[in-house]
Design brief:
Elements (H helix, E strand, L loop, with lengths): L20 E5 L4 E4 L4 E3 L4 E2 L5 E2 L14
Antiparallel strand pairs: 1-2, 2-3, 3-4, 4-5
């Protein structure tokens, strides 16, 4: 689906989130990437084939935690 040069990563690539957004709805919490992936603000994803990728936010560091 991508017509960019160089082309964006495919929906099945591990770096699929690097694709360019073609629609962005911050009030609804999602963006559609040119590879067909829907990315949600909680970092979850919906792939074009219907598979769901669970949210994968990085763990927050707590103040005063031992290193």
């Amino acid at each position: 689906m991508c017509a960019h040069n160089p082309p964006c990563p495919t929906a099945m690539a591990s770096d699929r989130e690097a694709a360019r957004p073609v629609a962005h709805r911050p009030e609804q919490g999602w963006s559609l990437l040119c590879n067909g992936v829907l990315v949600f603000e909680d970092t979850g994803e919906l792939l074009p084939d219907g598979r769901i990728i669970a949210p994968h936010r990085p763990l927050a560091l707590t103040v005063g935690s031992a290193a």
